[in-house]
Amino acid sequence: MPIYEYQCRACGHQFEYLVLPSSSAPECPSCHDQDLQKMISLCAVSSEGTRQAHLSSERKKYGKINREKQHEEHKMLHEHHD
Ligand SMILES: [Zn+2]
Q1: Rounded to the nearest whole angstrom, what is the distance from the C-alpha of residue 66 to the centroid of ligand 1?
Q2: 20 alpha carbon – ligand 1 mean position (Å)
Q3: Does the pLDDT value for residue 33 go beyond 90?
Q4: What is the 37 CA–ligand 1 centroid distance (Å)?
């Protein structure tokens, strides 16, 4: 059975939650809030994968901004010739 570690975003309480097929959404045992941050496990492979996924999503985000900026500049070139 997978045990996940969560931190409650509302009160900061950290707890482990055993996920059962029949269990409902986890909630904080302290304040019963369901706004939880899932803690990253201590597995080195999974944290490396997470970091790479994060980097590639950052790259995608900036790539999109650059394309939009280029598009704006291109538009200006066309609008400002006389
Ligand atoms: Zn809480």
Answers
A1: 40
A2: 21
A3: yes
A4: 11
Could you give the CA distance from residue 28 to residue 14 in angstroms, rounded to a whole number?
8
Residue 52 · residue 24 · CB < 8 Å: no
Contacts of 10 (CB under 8 A, 6+ apart): 28, 31, 33, 35
What spacing in Å lies between the alpha carbon of 23 and ligand 1's midpoint? 18
> Of 10-19, 20-29, 46-55, 73-82, which gets the smallest average pLDDT?
46-55
Ligand 1 center to 57 CA (angstroms): 30
Angular region, 23: left φ>0, alpha ψ -120 to 50, beta rest: beta
Q: Position of tokens 């045990």?
A: 3
Largest Cα span, the chain: 71
Q: How far apart are CA 44 and CA 15, in angstroms?
A: 21
